Amino acid sequence: MFTISTLSPSEHDLWFLPLGGTGEIGMNLNLYGHAGKWLMVDCGVTFNASLSPDATTLHEVVSADPSFIADRHEDLVGIVITHAHEDHLGAVPQLWRRFRCPVYTTAFTAEFLRRKLAQVGLAGKVPIIEVESRARIDIGPFNVEWLPLTHSLPEPHSLVIRTAAGNVFHTADWKIDYQPVVGEPFDPLPFQELAHENITAMVCDSTNANRPGRSLSEGELYDGLYELVEAAEGRVVVGCFGSNIARLITLAKIAQQTGRYMALLGRSLQNMVSTAQATDVWPKDLRLIEASHLAYLPKSEVLLVATGSQGEPRTALNRLANNSHYACELDVGDTVIFSSIVIPGNEHSVARLIAALERKQVHIVVAKAAAKPIHASGHPCADEVAELYRWVQPTIAIPVHGETEHLHANAAIAKAAFVPIQLVGTNGDLYILSGRVRIRPQVVKAGRIALKQ
């Protein structure tokens, strides 16, 4: 019988224990257990969220409660960060003091993380071990390989975690994109080769598993965005996810082609682009201007990219909508383009933002109403998920990164792709992947904590 005090994997055990990101989108914190040790994969946050389903108070930044693994941090051999999205690394600066173990990741993500650590007084204090793409290294009893794939920012990686008790393929966030704008096109070969490795379990992104077909390529958005910017008469403001470097590069190219100067409004955008510049991801011929220079430019020469496409209260788009941004005010006839979707749960905040913009009599374009594509998801739709299952051929499918409907859609895809076992659970469940395969529900009490900005 498992109890919290005795919960320790033997050399014959291979366990998966999600504390965040399973049964929800965002706030990923995953643990793998083997031979008395634990490996953490990702440590992220979510924004403007409550600490429980019944609570009405929203907190600006929230993470999974790390108490379980913090209480046994001496057995935590490392934290692996798969990519530089806030829902995968945003909690590291606030929580690392509770873990005090090495962090493993690739160069772009390491640079972005260092900047975040410096903001909380941890510059140079966290051991960050930079790993090459396709590297394979031992972290305690876990042998970890970084396999590159495509997502919506530089250097996204999946992981192959090999142990004496079995092997796991952890996808993290991904899609199949043959025109990703940033980085190399998706290469199926490494994943097809996994079929010969007896992958015990595939832990798979479920975000769009309930959407048929395939996701759009990032490279398909240029024409739609170009036509909107080129036709606009006043200022153009584009709201998009601040971490999407590919989208930002596309917009910078469009600004160059349409005779506009591009500026960034929002700290997360500026941090991400400065990271891209420092790691030579950002093309040197694409120039940006300081937001403080906007007031001196004709409206027809301005292209702004702003944070806050989800209606977050203190972000740049909200401040523009409420005449409280220091750098710029929107006027009648300006254009605001939402190069994004509404994340479930943000419908009311986005509706309030759009209503505030409408009162300013600006032209508003949302992705679902645009004549041509102006947004592409960074996650795979059903046909892509099925293809990856067929390539990898795992014994067990473990859907993660999704709400209940997404997890069950993923499991159904796995079953149709002839994956023998599908395990659908939630945060706090213990997935036993060796011996008698099963889920032990709510072995660990999963919760949330609010983090200070």
From TrEMBL:
- InterPro entries from the entry? Metallo-B-lactamas, RibonucZ/Hydroxyglut_hydro, RMMBL, RNase_J_2, RNase_J_b_CASP
Q: Which UniProt keywords apply?
A: Exonuclease, Hydrolase, Metal-binding, Nuclease, RNA-binding, Zinc
Q: Which SUPFAM superfamilies match?
A: Metallo-hydrolase/oxidoreductase (SSF56281)
- Domain Metallo-beta-lactamase: residue ranges: 26-225
Keyword Hydrolase included in the entry's annotation: yes
Read off the Gene3D superfamilies from this record.
Metallo-hydrolase/oxidoreductase (3.40.50.10710), Ribonuclease Z/Hydroxyacylglutathione hydrolase-like (3.60.15.10)
Q: Does the keyword rRNA-binding apply?
A: no
A single MF term (Gene Ontology)? metal ion binding
For this protein, the record's PANTHER family field holds: RIBONUCLEASE J
Protein known as = Metallo-beta-lactamase family protein, RNA-specific
Q: Which organism is it from?
A: Reinekea forsetii
